[in-house]
Amino acid sequence: MLEEASQVQVPYAQSADMSEQHSIGERIKNLRTQAQLDQAVLAEAIGTARSHLTNIERGRSKPGRDLLMAFAKFFDVSVDWLATGEGPKKVHEALTTKELLLIQAFRKLPENEADLHLRLIVAHTEKGKDS
User: Fold this and answer.
1) Model pTM?
2) 67 φ, ψ (degrees, to nearest 5)
């Protein structure tokens, strides 16, 4: 328990944006501490040993593909961001059928018409915010 307590305070993680963290272990540790979870709880939730999680957070080992995906799913972050620290942190929401149809139709328009429709949509949504 003393070991876990000493691992919770990470000055670098507290002072840096998570995208600036250089290792996967630092990103995982920061996500865990922000969620106020101890290592035992997170390890059980993702299906690994606490000692393995400790080694990952300390940079002594790296998670395999399945464990990486489990971390990403648990914390609702992208696998790419978790693995590399690059790209968007959050997984984008899936588009609805209407959104997909709108994008497909928009891409078929000539550029001058696309610009006109885009301005109309933006103006309409901006007008709705003011009321």
Assistant:
1) 0.56
2) -70, -40
